[in-house]
Amino acid sequence: MIKQVELVVIGASSGGLDVLITLLKTLPEHYRIPTVAVLHQRPNRSSGVPEMLAKYTHLQVQEPEDKQGIEAGCFYVAPPNYHLLIDSGKVFSLSLDAPLNFCRPSIDMAMESAAEVYQQHLVGCVLTGANADGAEGVRYIKENGGYVMVQEPAEATVDSMPKAAIAATEVDEILPMVRIAERLSSFAAGGQS
Asked: What is the DSSP track for 38-90?
């Protein structure tokens, strides 16, 4: 059972931009839980993703800077070509460590660092994607008492990431995207699982 959600970490790859737009369009005004999206993007370019996503939400969409504090009402997007980690003190840390499973940013690394800091107050979501990134991350979230939701594989643009997450641990819920947004909204309203 999760009582108070203090952070949500979302991982997505192929088809991820579309599902993030669906999510943001569906989240209500009362949703202010700080949310981190780790989206696989091509390195060495300005992503433009925060500006694109900002059109669909009341949340402040931004790429966090190194040592920036995590705040309510913000939707953070991992910058291209950096691992996005969460340090004790609830601040972001950007890393140029080698890619993990060919990915930088790595969903696994973001989720694992968040799980260490937020433990049972963390929700992890794995959405559409073409590899297994996020599977170890959600397993670690579960081991640390957090809550895990996975996009229904049949709905995903590419089902490899959701299937890998489901195989890695006993996830709490497997839902279509709109239901994931509704579930997150219930957490924001104080709803419990």
From this structure: EE---SSS---HHHHHHTT-SSEEEPPPTTPBP-TTEEEEPPTTSEEEEETTT
How confident is the model at residue 47, as a pLDDT? 65
* Residue from 106, 108, 121, 133 carrying the catalytic annotation: 133
**133 annotated active-site:** yes
| 30 annotated active-site | no
HSE, CB side, 13 Å, CA atoms: give it for residue 158.
14
Judging by DSSP bridges, how do beta strands 83-87 and 74-77 pair with one another?
unpaired
- Is the sign of the CA dihedral 41, 42, 44, 46 positive or negative? negative
Helix residue ranges, H only, the chain: 16-26, 49-54, 107-118, 135-143, 160-168, 177-188
Token pair, residue 185, equals 């909204």
> What is the block-wise mean pLDDT of the chain (193 residues), using blocks of 10 residues?
87 94 95 96 74 95 96 96 94 91 91 97 96 96 97 96 97 96 89 48
Is-catalytic flag, 13? yes
State the catalytic residue, choosing from 40, 83, 113, 121: 40
pTM above 0.85, yes or no: yes
